[in-house]
Sequence to fold (346 residues):
Amino acid sequence: MDQAASITLIDAERAVEVRASIVGERVRIAPDALADATGWKLEPRGLCRAEVCVPVRDRAGLVDEVGVDLAAFARAVGRPLALDIAECAAALGTGAAERSARMATLEAPDFTLPDLAGRMHSLSDHRGKKVLLIAYASW
Amino acid sequence: MWQALHEELGSLGFVPFTVALDQNPEDPRPYIERANPTHPSVIDTEHLIAELYDIRNVPTMLWIDESGRIVRPHDAQFGTDTFTQFHGKHSEPFLAAVRAWVKRGRGALDPDTVRAHQPLPTPETQLARAHRALAWWLHQQGRGEAAERHFLRAGELSPGDWTIRRGSMPIRGIHPMGPAFFELAKEGVPRYATEALPLPGAEPGRG
Fold:
């Protein structure tokens, strides 16, 4: 890579330092490094993660000899990207379509979070009971 | 309140699960210590449930049945009447509805009604959450100026998201009940993504 640098990629609350080429607003990441950071592998049939494959229409716009274009990658997999070139950091969100489809199933998404003492609690610990989920805040 | 409800209804297979959308765990600590809960009471510094359930303001509550399905989507409800003079809502009809649900299985909504009342994310609200996640990470790295840019960008993208715009105030050194809050209120930003759902009528002889 000509302009060797690195970028912190935040995906699902996990921040990973990834080697990248940064030229202007353009961030390119080697396919292997992208797979390590996000789980998405570039394959002949498209971008694949676990059993899911997304076809890539504009392959030349997605990847060149330097690497995978981060913005084009986010578009291809339908995920929002917040990018800060000056800070060498970016966050990948969850796509609205993906989130809406999961919400339409009405399955309450599971989560595991700590209490004040650091003990972890999962929603799924309470399967078999009626749960009143209460979101609040001090603000 | 939730502790009392847990004591009252816990033996009937009911559990309140409280989640504080606070980036500084010390902020909700006094409330939690005062309640001394036996039910789960967690802190969500990453705003994970805001993302999973598309929550844009608090307090909000949803009902999940024994099989893990949402039977009442989240809407603005209150467990006490502490702030009734500000929002005009009383807690008692909602608490009565929870009791009727737990004791008699009343009030769960059918799937189509739940879907019709679920707020759904848009590309803008989801991009806003990505900017909030970036801002929060930058903040934790001590890169406050950069964090501020992304908190503001997130607020521009999703002006109705109070978990972003007001929820980020404490860590940005802005008083969440000070002038900045009233500016937000003056903008006419809707407080909640959806109107409160009607509650099933109080049953005669409930108890």
Notes: Chain B touches chain A through 82 residues (CB under 8 Å). Residues 2-117 of chain B form a domain with the Glutaredoxin fold (CATH 3.40.30.10). Confidence is low (pLDDT under 50) at residues 202-207 of chain B. The radius of gyration of chain B is 18 Å.
